[in-house]
Design goal:
Largest sheet: 6 strands, antiparallel
Strand content: over 45%
Oligomer: single chain
Radius of gyration: 15 Å
């Protein structure tokens, strides 16, 4: 399995902002192989800039039929969702929610790269750090 960690500059309007991704970005990329019953988990801190329209994501390859439990904290309410790509379509695995803290879960339906995504819809007081913890376990 090859992992790549990339710092990307992405914005909603195509303007440069800050983001982070890990692993293949689309379903047609090589999907890593996993051992039977492998648990996938991590704790990360992500920097999100205060500028309105800033987007940041943490993307993780997760096999189908996994329960993904996660929680995050952010210094201010930020629009959050989990999405994946299927061809040119962007599909939500976890619908959008505006919150500064959230604990929840979802079940994967496909072998995919799932992206935990935060967007500043409005200018914030300052740059901030989002703390994310997730654990994906086979059903």
């Amino acid at each position: 399995m090859t992992k790549r960690s990339v710092l990307m500059l992405i914005g909603l309007s195509g303007v440069l902002s800050y983001g982070m991704a890990m692993g293949p970005a689309y379903a047609n990329d090589d999907f890593p192989s996993f051992k039977a019953n492998q648990i996938i988990s991590s704790e990360v801190e992500l920097l999100i800039r205060k500028k309105a329209g800033t987007m940041i994501e943490k993307c993780v390859a997760i096999p189908e039929q996994y329960k993904v439990s996660f929680n995050y904290t952010s210094p201010e309410a930020t629009l959050f969702s989990v999405h994946y790509h299927q061809g040119e379509d962007v599909l939500l695995a976890f619908d959008e929610e505006l919150s500064s803290t959230l604990t929840s879960e979802f079940t994967t339906q496909l072998d995919q790269t799932y992206c935990f995504t935060w967007v500043n819809e409005q200018e914030k007081k300052s740059d901030g750090v989002i703390s994310l913890e997730y654990k994906a376990s086979p059903l």
